[in-house]
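Team,

Forwarding the record for the chain on the shared tracking sheet. I've put the sequence and predicted structure together so nobody has to dig through attachments.
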Amino acid sequence: MRSTASQAESPPTAESPADNELISRIGAQRDETAFTALLERYQGAAYSLAFRITLRKELAEEVLQESFLSVWKNAFRYK
């Protein structure tokens, strides 16, 4: 799940679903495609933030993994 700063994130476009739609699909349908889209969109920024906070690659990767796991498990709660 690790990302580097050189990897481009995929911001929403006219063709791609908005974040709230992705979250809704993950929560209601356990849509793995929606989860992958959200992951690809934000993993670079999330990893960068986690690394700046932890200053350790392995710990930043763990934080990233736990964060996205939390999204998967709790997406049904987002409004």
